[in-house]
Amino acid sequence: MSKLQEEFKKRLIDELNFQEISNKEFAQKVGISNSTLSMYLYRGSIPAADVAVKMAEVLHTTTEYLILGIDKNNPNTKQSTKSDWQKRELTNIANSLSSTQLDNFLEIARAFKNAVSNHQDFEN
Asked: DSSP code of 9?
């Protein structure tokens, strides 16, 4: 599998996870079969242009981002889609918390950061 295929597959999976869209629902909205979607998700096949455009529309993104990882709002190629998805997920969680819950969440996050930092210092 080429790097382009691997990166497309990764971005597609990450977007489906982030947007909480099931494979079945996505395939229906795009107008492809579940087996065709499986080729993109598990074999890393790159879709035809018309399918890629429809995928991007359903995911509210661009074909350039899905295929190449280029976000027009950020002209640099995204190097870490999973990291971006994780940061968005943390933001969504934080936004859903009450003030007290957010204080507790931040306390836990800071403790984790310090523990990881101390562990890395210990290993070096």
From this structure: H
The pLDDT, as a whole number, for residue 75 is: 46
Q: What is the mean pLDDT of residues 14-35?
A: 92
Torsion sign (Cα): 72, 76, 81, 86: negative
- Beta-bridge partners for 71: 74
CA distance 55 to 30: 6
Given a contact cutoff of 8 angstroms between Cβ atoms, the answer to whether 55 and 49 are in contact is: no
* Predicted structure pTM score: 0.60
Which pairs with CB-CB distance under 8 Å and at least 24 residues apart come from 99-107? none
Longest dimension (CA), the chain: 53
Residue 62 backbone phi and psi in degrees, to 5: -115, 160
Asked if 30 and 55 touch (Cβ cutoff 8 Å), the reply is yes
The Cα–Cα gap between 62 and 75 comes to: 13
Angle ∠(3,32,36) on CA atoms, nearest 5: 45
